[in-house]
Amino acid sequence: MSSHEINLLLEGVFLISSILAAPLIAKIAFTITMPIWTRLFQKRYLKLTFKDGDKTYSVVVDPKTDYALDLEKRLQSLGFGRGTREN
Prior knowledge:
The protein is α+β, with helices and mostly antiparallel strands. The chain has helices at residues 3-40, 68-77; strands spanning 46-52, 55-61.
């Protein structure tokens, strides 16, 4: 084999292995960069909207607080989800 044929064979092997390794490389890049993106673009508040028939209730909450119990009590006092859960 000439050196040109060996170079061509090595380029082909490299190209095929690069294509086969692309999903793994993408997963590694995603795993490395995801904490950076979540820190740069933090969503500080969540807007939750609840609908029950013709009634709509929207609330903006801070995800760092324990708001689930207070929100559930508030929704029950407004008549959302009556009788679906008992405490």
